[in-house]
Each structure stands twice: as C-alpha cells, then as structure tokens.
Design a protein that fits this description.
95 residues; mainly alpha; 75% helix
Length: 95
C-alpha cells in the first residue's frame, strides 16, 4: 500500500468524525432526545459519535447550562489526528 494513501485515509477518517460530531450538535437542537425517532441516518450519527463524546464527558464539561463536550471532543480528535499522522509519517518516511 502506498504510504500517502494511508496517511490521507487516516486524516480523512478523523475529518469525517469531526464532521459527524458537528452534525450531531446541530441535530441535538432539532432532536433533543437523540435517536428515539427511528431515522436510521440520525441513529447512525448518534451511535458513531457517542463513544467519542462519552470520553469527552469524563472531563468537566459544563459551563452553566451549556455542555461543551463536543468542543472537548473536537480538541481531542485534532490532537489524536496530529499525533497519529506524525507517527505514521515518521514510520513511513524515517523523519
């Protein structure tokens, strides 16, 4: 496999996760009870992002009534993406 393909694949995977969290934030305003309405796409988005947001919820994540766990999840994913892509670059290109 091409090293550039693997690096791009990992980077795009993280970008998709970040996008899904953003969509979930928007959907949480429309469907505040989550995926109780039966739509498969929305259920997939909620199910795909729940493990990441659960990790972010372990950190104190409330400012008054505002839940900032999606922001914490964005930061965690960006840091993880940077670390993993950097390690893969070092592995493939001996930097």
């Amino acid at each position: 496999m091409n090293a550039y393909f693997i690096l791009k694949f990992v980077s795009v995977l993280f970008d998709i996760l970040i996008f899904l969290i953003f969509v979930r934030v928007i959907l949480s305003w429309i469907y505040p009870l989550g995926h109780a309405h039966g739509n498969r796409l929305i259920s997939f988005i909620f199910d795909a992002t729940e493990p990441i947001l659960n990790l972010a919820r372990k950190i104190p994540h409330k400012i008054g009534m505002i839940d900032i766990s999606p922001i914490i999840a964005f930061i965690m994913l960006e840091i993880a993406q940077y670390i993993i892509v950097s390690l893969l670059q070092a592995l493939f290109f001996n930097i």
